[in-house]
């Protein structure tokens, strides 16, 4: 039975299917080679499957858990044919992800908190951080919210300019002070503007790279502290943006950022251009931090809320 339960529109489901095409093609090609000439799921097939999952960027720890679950089924059911492997694999991945007790978003509705809801976005340069902010602001505006953007990645002129362009495109105000200005001052003004103008959500871009982890931690802590002068609970969400096309490097970045600051959500971008989409499974399972959004294409609507069941269904939808 399909896991697709109607939470997505037909268009979004098709976009998700299309965005995962390269991952699916690579995964099932490897899987087909692994079971070629075999009739039942035995130790040799499981060894091959382990290699398929690891080379598909699912991650070692998550792969081991998946293999253990399949081994338990093989032991329980005594005989499983390789023709059943797709179905078993789909069920066990979906089951593993559903057990992490992280609730998926249904849409772009903001949590019920005192406004403005403040999102601080972190991530290294080049992962699609600013584009994700722009698409997210468009989605929130389309949902009827008043949005303010803060261009606090002041180490790169391109980042400031890109945020401004997104603001013009979407039709939302952008607070910017230019390059080489104090990022915390930008964040302060953005939140201040949001409070005074009854904004529903304020999204703050931050520097993608500082000299070391201590500098990064200190800078993000300072930005948080100044925002709290206007909104004591800010930031409500620290969102880490990761580039899915980098595979295990995205996993490494997630580990580094979660050590440097409290990350409360993730967005994984560029899944449409890569065969490394399996990394979403590993990141979602390993960190137990909500993967809120995934990027599966160039259009604004291709930034989708991440739903574990929908994702696994699309991954196995041949």
Automatic annotation (TrEMBL):
Topology of the protein relative to the lipid bilayer: Peripheral membrane protein
EC number: 3.6.5.4
Keywords attached to this entry: Cell membrane, Cytoplasm, GTP-binding, Hydrolase, Membrane, Nucleotide-binding, Receptor
Principal EC category: hydrolase
Amino-acid positions noted as binding GTP in the UniProt annotation, renumbered to this chain: 123-130, 205-209, 269-272
A cellular-component GO term for this protein: cytoplasm
Catalytic activity of the protein: GTP + H2O = GDP + phosphate + H(+)
Subcellular location: Cell membrane; Cytoplasm
InterPro entries registered for this protein in UniProt: AAA+_ATPase, P-loop_NTPase, Signal_recog_particl_SRP54_hlx, SR_rcpt_FtsY, SRP/SRP_N, SRP54_GTPase_dom, SRP54_N_sf
Subunit structure comment from the entry: Part of the signal recognition particle protein translocation system, which is composed of SRP and FtsY.
Name listed for the protein in its UniProt record: Signal recognition particle receptor FtsY
